[in-house]
Design brief:
Blueprint (H helix, E strand, L loop, with lengths): L2 E4 L3 H13 L5 E4 L2 H10 L6 E5 L7 H9 L9 E5 L4 H9 L4 E4 L4 H31 L23 E2 L1 H13 L6 E7 L2 H7 L2 H19 L4 E7 L2 E6 L8 H12 L15 E3 L13 H21 L7 E3 L2 E3 L1
Helix pairs in contact: 2-3, 4-6, 8-9
Length: 329
């Protein structure tokens, strides 16, 4: 794995190089500022697979650098690990909102650094495999209306939605909140009802369009309270909200559903794309050894799925949409 480490302290860079080499990562380049790093990234012939960025640098800091890196097509999905001794929530939020995928704390621990780099390595390998598979499908098997180059359970990338991050990065974000001793966050999941039927009927483009519209509706409703969000696959979104008070999810579900209904979504053939969502009650994040991140997320998704099942057994209300002034049921 080809790594670029950026820090304005040459001693830190030397330590990073030595530690990375000792755990098997020997292809490490370094830069002493954000400006130097950008120049390297723009001019290198072979793209880097992972970036290590110090947050607190003179001149261009690591968060600003991260934002700029994410505008470069070659580095939109590259794992970016932020390096810092700061644990304040503001820095953590800003780093992940800028596009960071993980966090490593100073002073460095070789076990932690190894774990972070191994996770990045797995992400890089998985993306190469996925890109190869999709390329083969696109070349040899043109997509039919109800066939996809991805599985319904895949954690598809959703672009253009504020504070949307990758599923693994959201778990890393939650871990950092715990380390900072934060207790003012909550986790919940949003699940698209009967997503299997939408997946079966739609093309890949239509399915991604549906996911993007749901994510955008969540973003519209959650923007005022602050949040981070990721798509977990199978029509489920996991959201970490900064809202301090734990409240029943019914009101939030209605708000997001109304935001979706106002969009009058359609398939490419102009048939209505009627998306219904369910939300399980939120919980406080707990990242202790007895309550792993994945278990927390799975529990939230299960709550949303249980809510969807309960709704199926309830009397269904008429779905009324206005089209050219006419009411359609």
């Amino acid at each position: 794995m080809k790594i670029l480490a950026v820090d304005d302290n040459p001693d830190i860079l030397e330590i990073l190089e030595m530690m990375a080499c000792s755990i098997g990562f020997t292809d490490v380049s370094t830069a002493l500022s954000g400006e130097i790093a950008l120049n390297i990234l723009k001019n290198c012939e072979v793209s880097f697979d992972c970036l290590l960025l110090d947050i607190n640098m003179t001149g261009m800091d690591g968060i600003e650098l991260c934002k700029l890196v994410r505008t470069m097509p070659a580095y939109r999905k590259t794992p970016i690990i932020m390096l810092t001794a700061m644990t304040e929530k503001n820095f953590i939020n800003r780093a992940f909102q800028a596009g960071a995928t993980d966090y490593a704390n100073k002073p460095f621990d070789i076990v932690e650094l190894n774990a972070r780099l191994r996770m990045a390595e797995e992400v890089v390998a998985a993306r190469h495999e996925a890109a190869t598979a999709i390329s083969i499908v696109d070349t040899h098997h043109p997509e039919a209306p109800n066939q996809h180059a991805f599985d319904i359970f895949d954690k598809i990338e959703i672009e253009g939605v504020e504070h949307m991050t990758e599923y693994a990065a959201l778990g890393n974000y939650l871990t950092q909140l715990s380390r900072a001793g934060l207790v003012s966050s909550q986790v919940f999941a949003v699940k698209i009802d009967e997503v299997e039927a939408i997946y079966a009927r739609s093309s890949s483009e239509e399915f991604i369009y549906a996911l993007t519209e749901v994510a955008d509706a969540i973003s519209d409703v959650m923007r005022s309270s602050g949040y981070m969000m990721a798509y977990a696959g199978n029509g489920a979104f996991v959201v970490i909200s900064n809202k301090a008070t734990l409240e029943p999810s019914v009101g939030l579900e209605v708000e997001i559903q109304d935001a979706l209904d106002e969009r009058n979504l359609e398939y490419d053939n102009s048939d209505p794309l009627d998306i219904k969502i369910s939300i399980g009650n939120p919980m406080r994040p707990n990242t202790s050894k007895n309550q792993r991140i994945r278990r927390t997320f799975d529990r939230m998704i299960a709550r949303a799925e249980s809510r969807a099942l309960r709704k199926r057994s309830e009397p269904r209300s008429l779905n009324i949409r206005l089209v050219n002034g006419l009411k359609l049921h």
